[in-house]
């Protein structure tokens, strides 16, 4: 539970900091497209930081090893998605380097994978499979 709670807090903190930095510190120095990339990255990072908080809570409820592994997998997919998706958008906005643009969709796929795995967890709980 602890590591996912820390990851949630760090991602929330960074998302708010990046959003504020872009809105107040970078507005004059970046073009509108770069500001939009930072806005998108910080929104996705913040949302998935909250999702990581949910992962921490779910982990606290999971008793079976099978469920714990699935929940850890969800957390890792969300964390990888945040790093790849938001991280590549931050780099793109701050450096202008298009070399990282190909990473963004991989991050999006990881985020979608996390949500799909959450659906699987929900179905398992609903059906009572692997009940604790």
Explain this structure to me?
The protein has one domain (2-127): Four Helix Bundle (Hemerythrin (Met), subunit A), CATH 1.20.120. The protein has four helices and no strands. The chain has helices at residues 2-25, 32-61, 65-95, 103-127. It is elongated. The two termini are 17 Å apart.
What would the CATH topology be?
Answer: Four Helix Bundle (Hemerythrin (Met), subunit A)
Supply the number of structural domains. Answer: 1
Share of β-strand residues: under 5%
CATH architecture: Up-down Bundle
Work out the radius of gyration.
17 Å
Mean pLDDT: 92
List how many beta strands DSSP finds. 0
Parts with pLDDT < 50 across at least 5 consecutive residues: none
CATH level-1 class: Mainly Alpha
Structural topology:
Layout: H1 2-25, H2 32-61, H3 65-95, H4 103-127
Helix pairs in contact: 1-2, 2-3, 3-4
In a few lines, what is going on in this structure?
This protein has 132 residues and is an all-alpha fold.
Keywords:
132 residues; mainly alpha; Four Helix Bundle (Hemerythrin (Met), subunit A); 83% helix; elongated
């Amino acid at each position: 539970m602890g590591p996912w709670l820390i990851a949630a807090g760090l991602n929330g903190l960074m998302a708010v900091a990046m959003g504020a930095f872009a809105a107040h510190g970078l507005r004059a120095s970046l073009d509108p497209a770069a500001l939009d990339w930072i806005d998108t990255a910080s929104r996705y990072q913040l949302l998935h930081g909250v999702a990581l908080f949910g992962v921490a809570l779910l982990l606290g409820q999971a008793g079976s090893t099978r469920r714990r592994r699935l929940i850890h997998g969800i957390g890792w997919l969300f964390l990888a998605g945040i790093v790849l998706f938001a991280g590549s958008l931050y780099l793109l906005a701050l450096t202008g380097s298009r070399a990282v643009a190909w990473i963004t969709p991989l991050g999006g796929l990881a985020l979608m994978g996390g949500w799909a795995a959450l659906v699987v967890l929900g179905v398992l709980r609903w059906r009572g499979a692997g009940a604790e």
